[in-house]
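Retro notes
What went well: the complex prediction finally ran end to end.
Inputs used:
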Amino acid sequence: MNLFNIISELEKVDPEIMDRLSHRRSALSALGSLGKKMALAAAPIAIGSAFNKVLGQNNLADTTAVLNYALLLERLEYSFYDQALKAATLTPTLTGAARTAIETIRGHEQAHVNLLKTALGAAAAPEPANGFDFGGAFATYPTFLTFAQAFEDTGVRAYKGQAGNIPRDFSPTVGGATVNVLTVALQIHSVEARHAAHIRYMRRGAAAGAQANIMPWIVGKESNGAPAAVYGAGNPVATFPAEDNIMQATLTLTTGLGATYSAEDVSAAFDEALDNTTVTNIAKSVVTF
Amino acid sequence: MSNLLKKEGEEADLSTPLLVPIKRRSFFMYAGATAGATALLLSGCDDDNEDDKTPAAGTVSLGMGDIGVLNYAYALEQLEAAFYAQVIATPYANMSADEKTALTAIAKHEAIHRDFFKAAIPEASRIPGLNPDFSSITFTSRDSVLGAAKTFEDLGVAAYNGAGRLIQDPKYLLLAGKIVSVEARHAAYIRDLITPGSFSGSDVVDANGLDQALPVSTVLAAAQKYIKETINGDNVGK
């Protein structure tokens, strides 16, 4: 298979493909060495998300599909932390408070998996037959945290992108109790955001390279070494803009609110959503499952 | 500026109008007028109320339906923005440079949320600027400030989580979703400042791995001590 033939075919469908690809390439080259490793791993998504017009959209058919999508992401996250806690490469570094925090997070992901499986009942999709292969994610403590940030921030965007697809009055009986599915999804969503904030906080620590510039929230679309697509736009871009978005509803928040705010503060004040196709592509770019 | 909802309605995207119909809007104008009238009435009665040591600031009704939810969010964001503005204006003793940077950023985020809701809710149905009551907070004390910040952030997360299902328009739900995860990031950060590793402690995240989702009445009962006006949220989302 010839990559250039593919791109040339794509150009017929999407004339701007080369612009997007080369823009992405220059963005990637600006990253550090760890960034480059992640970027290499992320190459498929760089190409995949470059032709948004062909791929990328929210296309889950019903609430069951939404919940199975959530189940897959939770299984991925649980497996990620479980493998990390068992990885010999991380034994010397993932210790003390850091280990405790990762155990806490793993516990939450496990609880989310169980909850979603219970809610789905017989409709729950099976686990991927060969599990999840995270490649070199556990090579070093900083690499592990870079991946963790990518998964948590993506998870937050993923749940946000589905909120509107869950009927707000859908309250089935689960385990004898009436459960409003939208509320539960939101309750998981904010826990993922807490995880993301803590992982980002951990990256500021000495063992993780003392990256004091990493805030608990997302500033602009800074990826901090994670795949750029995690913070990029989804499809359609109007609904799923990149994380550096400064417009909400029809307002430009930097200048349109009667006070002047920096683009950094405005972008950080709102987390953006992502469609399921873009999220799945991001996951598949760094995980084999 | 304050006509965002109307402006959107006039644009091409009419498939999902931001606000259902004029009927509703005119109802809120009426509701807003009632809120104002109640406030007037209460202050008029002030002389008769011998138990009141401070002048009654009146009652503010959040309104109903989606506008009620937006006003609810606006009220909470006003509270948070005022709180962090004070934290930055009078920093507690020994605030580290890192803390100052982060708290300043949080103050900006909350001010942006507040100003966004102010701009997004039509003036006729928007609640007024509220007067905060931070008399229970000692701004010179790190413990007091961070304790209050934790309360506000966790409460904000629980409020948005609980209000999600009350929102009729998916666009507003998405907007609320964009804000709540930032509040959760704030909450996690503040908690880690107080007790490292408590970002998702068992007091806020239950055995099912779920964050809190609280009804409007519970949230307002907890927030009321920080607001001089009496907030009435009985019809939010109805």
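What we learned: Chain A touches chain B through 62 residues (CB under 8 Å).
What to try next: split runs per interface for comparison.
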